[in-house]
Amino acid sequence: GTEPPNAKPRVFGAAALTYSNFFGCDRLSGLAKPDGTPDGDSDAGPGKNKGFYVNNCRVGPELENRDDGVNLQALVLGSRGPISAKTNYFMTAQFGSNAATYKPLNTDRESLGTLTDASLTFNHIPGARLKAGLFKKPGPEELLQPLKNRDYIFLTDFTRRDQIERFVTGNAKGTKGIPGQGTPVTEAYDADVGRDWGIQIFDSFRTADWQHTYAVMGGNGNGIREDDNNNEKDLNLYWSSEKNLPGGKGPGKHGVKLYVYHQEGVRNFIKTDGSDSEDFERIRYGVGIKALGNFFGGHKQRLGLHFMFADGMVLQSAVTSCTDCPYGGQIQIAAEEGNKARGTTIDYGFYLNKKWQFDARLSRNNLLYETAENTVWSPSDERIITELAIGTNYHINPKSRVTLNYVFRESEAPNPVEHPNPNI
After folding, report:
1. Rg of the chain in Å (alpha carbons)
2. What is the pLDDT of residues 144-155, one digit of tens each?
3. Are 154 and 20 a contacting pair, CB within 8 Å?
4. Which pTM does this prediction carry?
5. 387 pairs with which residues across the strands?
């Protein structure tokens, strides 16, 4: 949104083709159908439902019964440039296979292509640029980075689960709906993919060797297709201060950056009679530090530490984490305030030369480490999800690269279920 005065309108594009193989993902076994009859392959045995994969072991977004395959992760076409000396535009459309073009948490393609950015920026007031339309919300580094500058193929679990929002009309716990929170559903009708429709005031300024950036955005709190979840509006805040270091340019400028952000809004579910149910607060915030420069012997290196927090509207999982299993894959969201998750990410990158870079990222999501009182959620719903991603990027040229990642994933349910009848 800050085109230089001599810029000209231009067309651009980006594409990402990925191959994924989820090693160690055995098909489910040992889960009984609701009627107790066998399911899946012929030798499954009574009460078994072999033959299904959990969603985390399937190539998305189609979630077919396959643990490896090729996916067009992104195919973006866009245009940007000035309209006048102090007004410019930015537009992109997504045609790839991802949450923008598929119904989230299900297997149906929503559209061949959809707008993912459509904004105007007005640079008339010194120190307070104004942006309006559909654009990225102030938030975590992972979602602000364009495809070109992402060091890893997949986002961290916290960002995928707790930051990117899926919009649903009804909620489930187990195989039953939660009273007052609508009829359970197996798909979301929209996703925000890190964006929202709204108005933002932002700018950056320097003090000595420091570059400071701020953003204040009022958004609809809806998905990219502008379906209106309610009449409430979201507030998104961002601040960063970066110590400039010699070297680099643009997104690759060397420096040490401190940043903090806060997002808050209200969501609701639709009751079975079509009326609105109780509203639920959705709060996300985080703080981080990121360094990029020539450290420890002269090689270019990257180091980052990020703490993320979620309160209310926390996506726990689909029932059985399997969309086509006998239990139906109904979506479970810990909606009430007081249901919390926190994420931690440690990131390191080593740039051997202009062609080769090596990366390692340790991330952890403490999902529902704290649950609200007097709700259907309990300590037994806590999950600890840890991922270690190691990889390399080979830069063919400044605009093309090949990325290889290997991710070790571990999920733990640390608290046993406490049943009211100790004999069961």
Report:
1. 23
2. 998 889 999 999
3. no
4. 0.90
5. 363, 409
